[in-house]
Amino acid sequence: MMTSPQLPMRPTASSVRWARAAGIVYVTGSVGFLAVFSWLAAAFGYPDVLDRSAAEVLPALLSLGGTGRLVWAVYAILPLLLIQASVGASEWLRDWDGRVPGAARLGLALQAVAAVAMTLGLARWSTANWILVESWGIADSAQRVVLAAVFDAVNSFFGNAIGEFVGELALYSGFVAFAGMLRNVTPVVQPAADIANLLLPLFLIVFGVVLVRLRLGAPSEAVP
Questions:
Q1: What would the mean pLDDT of 129-142 be, rounded to a whole number?
Q2: Cα dist. 88→66, 110, 112, 113, 140 in Å?
Q3: Cβ distance 173 to 103 under 8 Å?
Q4: pLDDT attached to residue 144
Q5: What's the whole-number average pLDDT of the chain?
Q6: Is the model's pLDDT at 221 over the cut of 50?
Q7: Domain locations along the chain
Q8: Taking the chain, what is the end-to-end CA distance rounded to the nearest angstrom?
Q9: In this structure, which of 84, 155, 164, 177 has its CB flanked by the most CB atoms within 10 Å?
Q10: Is residue 49 classed exposed, middle or buried when 0-12, 13-18 and 19+ CB atoms within 10 A define those classes?
Q11: Plot region of 135 (φ>0 → left; ψ -120 to 50 → alpha; else → beta)
């Protein structure tokens, strides 16, 4: 009877270092996300503010001042940490990828797509929307109609279509690939996989801690 390919005997010291570095980046990025999100929720009413009109949102955005614009810029950069973290995770998973060839590379590619898409979506607030903010205060009623239409178009394309749909779809798909492989290696990641669809930042923190705590373990048993 044919059996599935055996997993490698143990991860290498190099791959464990990659995993720990990835874990640190996942945890750091997630904590940064929670901090920025909390600030925007308190100062800007985010994300509920996204359901309001340009006439309400743009003046509120302007009231955040230079600090708010900087916070939005940091928020846009944070998803790019996914690329660095997923490189480390994929390097570790490469050692274990005997059962699902290519899954680590798939997870890396999906998280790279997610990072770029989410950055494009979030960057609109400190770039395109900020230009609209600066024009809103000096615009007449007719010009504000145009500015509101541009605001809606920018948010629909970069926010809803790129940032949310493409970004989040690729992000969750990437973690399905990573978490699915990790379940073949160690049961400790199972709680992280279970909460992935409930609270992503918490999942990233748990996932990162799992990677940071990896050790050169005992030889793995063959997969039947």
A1: 93
A2: 35, 14, 13, 16, 52
A3: no
A4: 95
A5: 78
A6: no
A7: 13-212
A8: 10
A9: 177
A10: middle
A11: alpha
Tokens coding 86: 């997923």
3-class SS of residue 80: helix
CA separation for the pair 99, 25 (Å, rounded): 27
Condensed to tens digits (0 to 9), the pLDDT of residues 16-26 reads: 787 788 888 88
Residues 181-205 pLDDT 10s: 555 455 555 555 444 444 567 777 8
Handedness of CA 110, 85, 208, 106 (dihedral sign): positive
Contact 122, 50 (CB under 8 A): no
Structure tokens at 126: 């400190």
Query: How far apart (Å, rounded) are the C-alpha atoms in residues 13 and 41?
Result: 42
Please tell me the distance from the alpha carbon of residue 143 to that of residue 210, in angstroms, as a whole number. Answer: 53
User: Closest by alpha carbon to 113, among 78, 90, 157, 83?
Assistant: 83
Dist. CA 70–CA 85, nearest whole Å: 24
Q: Mean pLDDT, to the nearest integer, of 150-179?
A: 84
From CA 120, how far away is CA 162, in angstroms rounded? 7
| Position 99, amino acid | R
Instruction: Determine the average pLDDT of the residues in 72-100.
Output: 77
Torsion angle (degrees, nearest 10) of CA 201, 197, 105, 30: 0
CB 4 within 8 A of CB 99: yes
DSSP type of residue 24: H
